[in-house]
Model the fold of this input.
Amino acid sequence: MYFSAPNESGILDHRVVRDGSEPVFVPMRVFPNGSGAEIIVTLFQWPGLSDAYFERDAETTSKDLNTLKRLLESDQGI
Done:
């Protein structure tokens, strides 16, 4: 996985590389919200990607974001 260069704009765009396939671009942003923040991830269903694979990818992304939320809200942080 390759992330965008560190910046102060909340841009966390990254590319995911899976098993020799072409890298997949994943836009990701962090926006301040009161004393916290909101994270927005955009998933694209690229041509040739089955509905089942896209749904599985969306579920995995949701689980990852829930794990991130749990870690950030815990006493330990990350």
